[in-house]
């Protein structure tokens, strides 16, 4: 943990290069913070944390990375019982990831656009403390000590296995349903995401199946009720 007068050391992992550069530029100006490294790879972030020479006090973790997800980064570090504060972030609705982040051992989940929330969460995590979930009072983020203990790590893995059923929507499925909810047509969504219309349709059908929705409009309504859009 941070000693009085020392700067908090931070690592940042986000597979969006522009977001990574923007966050680094903003956070680098904070006088109490020192960025040790940034990376677009979840695997590299884990390796950096395993190495005592590059291990930060806090890691800022993007939840929606496509190769190694933010949740998997958190779970891997917790299995190793590393005393690193984990602050998850997302550009999607917080309800999409709140419980996943908590069960993975993170101390907070904050919107990428909420700079005050991010800096507050980094401060808390550097002191080993968790931040209250802003969207769901039933979600409790663990403090670092609880999250890194072997028994609690095993319990979190067990809870994750129990809750992480196959019906959880992926970030891409949520994104596509959100675009439909904004009135975009399939062809427009395909062009925006550089995907084929067939692929967009496949994502939409998977989302409807997971939600047990009668049609696309029903799927959008269900997502809105769950705070996913």
TrEMBL record:
InterPro entries, per database record: CheY-like_superfamily (IPR011006), NreC/VraR/RcsB-like_REC (IPR058245), Sig_transdc_resp-reg_C-effctor (IPR016032), Sig_transdc_resp-reg_receiver (IPR001789), Tscrpt_reg_LuxR_C (IPR000792), WalR-like (IPR039420), WH-like_DNA-bd_sf (IPR036388)
All residue ranges annotated as the HTH luxR-type domain in the record: 162-227
Pfam families per record: GerE, Response_reg
GO molecular function, one term: DNA binding
Keywords assigned: DNA-binding, Phosphoprotein
Residues recorded as bearing 4-aspartylphosphate in the entry: 62
Top-level division of the source organism's lineage: Bacteria
CDD domains membership: LuxR_C_like, REC_NarL-like
UniProt domain Response regulatory: residue ranges: 9-127
GO biological process: phosphorelay signal transduction system; regulation of DNA-templated transcription
PANTHER family listed in its UniProt record: TWO-COMPONENT RESPONSE REGULATOR (PTHR43214)
Protein name: DNA-binding response regulator
